[in-house]
Specification:
Layout (H helix, E strand, L loop, with lengths): L3 E7 L2 E2 L5 E7 L6 E6 L4 E2 L2 E2 H4 L5 E8 L2 E14 L4 E6 L2 H4 L7 E3 L4 H8 L5 E4 L7 E3 L5 H12 L2 E5 L2 E5 L12 E4 H4 E4 L2 E2 L7 E8 L5 E6 L7 E6 L6 H14 L5 E2 L1 E4 L10 E5 L10 E12 L3 E10 L1
Parallel strand pairs: 11-14, 15-23, 18-20
Antiparallel strand pairs: 1-2, 1-7, 3-4, 3-24, 4-9, 5-6, 7-8, 8-9, 10-12, 13-14, 16-22, 17-21, 18-19, 22-25, 23-24, 24-25
């Protein structure tokens, strides 16, 4: 029988007694979130914990079994809900990037890593795949996080944190078959799942392809052109400079791109630790069609209370 253990630090205080926590981390959402639930009557040297925790205090959440803990979240206090119990709400390192103003200026040819080199704090490691966005204007002194969110929404790049590492990836037309992966045995690691196997014929795809023209005009096409319902996949093709080039590329992707036949999520125990962006390889003795499937982790919801710890993992691209 494994014993659930944790080490939760908020500001200068370690919280030995918590009712539980939830954490949401994702490749497709800009900001990771956490919520820590604390009994109202907990005190530290005679002072209520709720009086000691302040907005902006650093948060680290480590958890595991038998004191073999792993870092699940690092970030900062966004707000505190006073009540019975107390809830401490936090955001990951994107919280800091939301406080960093960027100067209004025009970039003749903005490379993402040029921007990050100007503004990213020195203690955050840059793991972003560089890309040229063409002519790019920064207006009204937005925060660094706001610019990254604009790039995410308009160019399709995905930004997410792992501890103090900022990752930025472009959606790929190919699954990284040589990527390091975690072996997931359904008989050992999985509590439950709602995975579904969907045939290629039953997947309704919508392919969107975007580019930036030399005059900074954004150009986007969609195939099928008039489709309104389906599974949308967005790609950046900065080398394409005409609508015809974009449309030909989109039509080719529509015919060849395979997002994978598995859809849904699975609930894992607390080990092995799975993080957004990781790859998993499945072994399921009862469902052989899942075996050796390489699946990328799109998002994870971590949950812990006094009786259980689990990870609800939503899968993305697979094959």
């Amino acid at each position: 029988m494994f014993r659930i253990t944790h080490n939760i630090q908020v500001g200068n205080y370690r919280l030995p007694q918590v009712s539980g926590f939830t954490i949401d981390r994702s490749m497709v959402s800009l900001t990771g979130l956490c919520s820590i639930t604390i009994p109202r009557n907990i005190a530290y040297n005679g002072t209520k914990v709720s009086d000691l925790i302040k907005k902006g205090d650093a948060i680290t959440i480590e958890a595991g079994y038998d004191d073999n803990n792993s870092l699940l979240f690092s970030g900062y206090v966004k707000n505190i809900t006073l009540g019975t119990p107390i809830e401490v709400h936090g955001e990951d390192e994107m919280y800091r990037l939301k406080q960093i103003p960027c100067e209004t200026m025009q970039y003749p040819d903005l490379h993402i890593n040029t921007l990050l080199g100007q503004y990213l704090p020195a203690d955050i490691e840059n793991r972003v795949t560089d890309a040229s966005l063409g002519t790019f204007r920064v207006s009204n002194n937005p925060s660094l996080a706001a610019i990254l969110d604009y790039i995410r929404q308009n160019y399709g790049l995905l930004f997410y944190f792992k501890n103090k590492q900022l990752f930025g990836v472009m959606p790929s037309t190919q699954l990284a078959s040589n990527a390091d992966s975690l072996d997931i045995d359904f008989a050992v690691h999985v509590k439950a799942d709602n995975l579904q196997y969907v045939s290629d014929e039953d997947v309704n795809l919508i392919i969107k392809v975007k580019t930036v023209l030399p005059d900074n005009t954004k150009l986007e096409v969609q195939e099928p052109e008039k489709a309104t319902g389906g599974e949308v996949h967005t790609f950046l093709a900065l080398e394409k400079k005409t609508e015809k080039e974009l449309r030909d590329y989109a039509r080719n992707l529509l015919a060849t791109y395979k997002p994978g036949n598995l859809q849904g999520s699975l609930t894992l125990y607390g080990r092995p630790l799975v993080e957004p962006g990781d790859f998993m390889k499945f072994f399921d003795a009862d469902n052989q069609e899942r075996n050796d499937k390489l699946c990328q982790v799109e998002k994870v919801n971590y949950q812990m209370n006094q009786s259980f710890m689990q990870q609800i993992v939503t899968i993305g691209r697979n094959g």
